[in-house]
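MODEL INPUT / OUTPUT PAIR
PAIR INDEX: 1
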Amino acid sequence: MGKNWIIDVLADIRTFALQNDLPELADHLNETMLVARTEIESSSEGTPFAVGSDVFATRRVFGEFGTGRRA
């Protein structure tokens, strides 16, 4: 899993932005996801940052938006 969890978090926030009429934010998040993918792919896999609780805490705050997710 490594650092890829951040892409899912950014996708969830992007979906929230689209569903709440924040298209400029959604566009910026697209760019942010590209930067994140590029950095993750170019770096060596490190230790994931508290994958368990932090990812689930983030999803509790923003909700689950899996149906419209585009990564």
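PAIR INDEX: 2
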Amino acid sequence: MPPGAFAVSKNEGAEYRLSLSPNISMGPRGFARMIALSAGFLALPLLAVLGTPVLWGLLPFAGLALWGLWYALSRNAAERERLHEELRLTHNEIKITRNNPRTPTQHWHANPYWVRLNLQEKGGKVENYLTLEGGGRVVELGAFLSPEERAKLHDDLSLALRHLR
């Protein structure tokens, strides 16, 4: 899900929430098509040995390759679903919770007045490397987003921070 726009309000009780998750490049239909296409391509060489004992020697390897593809795609989709970041911004606190697929959930919070938002267009770990600095730590935000999405998130978040200060 690409970054959404923050609502801008100067009310004392204003709260801004943002949920970030990776883009889904292949849905269930794409998954089924990929498995079917792979099964078809794996079956092509087996047609040449149809009716011979060699077929029974090659069939387990073709099945294992197809199962390996299915397992890898399924695991990737499951881990992508678990990966997301939640950002909550109020007048008194900015809080980020990052749910990782295989590691414990990470939490970070700071006073938004003292938070610095940095966007390194070049020279960072990735293009448009977005970080928040505050509370004695530097945290990366939206690592799984595209460079354009991180730039848009920077603009939206800097606007929201300006209006809450």
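PAIR 2 NOTE: Residues 108 and 137 are 8 Å apart (CA to CA).
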